[in-house]
TrEMBL record:
Protein name: Uncharacterized protein
Length: 124
């Protein structure tokens, strides 16, 4: 890996960790899980290490983190369908966001937007 791509990965990882330390529980868990399970996998090689959920343990209880993780995983499991619905013209982008918001309440608009974008990437 060249120095430039290593710096970009370090910067991206630090940005996600900062977001996890400052966001509400659902958005913080989304940032960590999305980065660790999606962003790392599809970014440049070699893939950086995942971010551990330990970054949340100073702010939230184990049961809160566990519940948030379950909800994030459920949202991300709907990513492919959301992207496919948009690509197939079954739903518009805003309609897809609305469907995710209805099925998975409590996340920020950025989380829904990132979920649809991940789905668009996967469904291509």
């Amino acid at each position: 890996m060249d120095e430039g791509s290593e710096q970009l990965q370090t910067t991206a990882r630090a940005r996600v960790e900062r977001q996890a330390l400052n966001a509400g529980l659902l958005d913080a868990a989304f940032a960590v899980i999305s980065y660790s399970d999606f962003d790392r996998r599809f970014g440049p090689l070699p893939h950086p290490l995942p971010i551990d959920l330990d970054v949340l343990r100073n702010r939230f209880s184990e049961s809160e983190i566990s519940d948030a993780c379950r909800r994030v995983i459920a949202l991300l499991q709907d990513a492919y369908q959301a992207g496919d619905d948009v690509l197939s013209n079954r739903l518009t982008y805003p309609e897809s966001i609305h469907r995710l918001r209805q099925g998975h309440p409590g996340f920020s608009e950025e989380c829904y937007d990132r979920t649809v974008n991940q789905g668009l990437f996967m469904a291509r």
